[in-house]
Amino acid sequence: MPRRGLVAGPDLEHFQRRYFTPAEVGVLESIWEILHRYLPYNAHAASYTWKYEGKNLNMDFTLEENGIRDEEEEFDYLSMDSTLHIPAILLYFNDDLTEL
């Protein structure tokens, strides 16, 4: 089942149009697989440290294994629009230009 999420840069409004890339990801996809699908948007995606809530993500783990829960069912149970909260994975540049 696909999950909505963001692979994102800075959390500033004028950056949002340029740097935020919404992505649907499968619950069984590892962060490494998500990175490979993100490459058309940023060929240097492997040059970044991928973080969620300030913690480095294990690239071999899925979102769930990295502590990023799918809360869509909870939103549905509460009759809330699940698009109100979309988890954001932040990318921090590592000062190299790795290309895959």
UniProtKB/TrEMBL annotation:
InterPro entries the UniProt entry points to: Cytochrome_b5_domain
Keywords for this protein: Heme, Iron, Metal-binding
GO BP annotations listed: cilium movement
MF (Gene Ontology): metal ion binding
Entry annotated with the keyword Iron: yes
PANTHER family the UniProt entry points to: CYTOCHROME B5 DOMAIN-CONTAINING PROTEIN 1
Family that this chain belongs to: Belongs to the cytochrome b5 family.
Protein name listed in UniProt: Cytochrome b5 domain containing 1
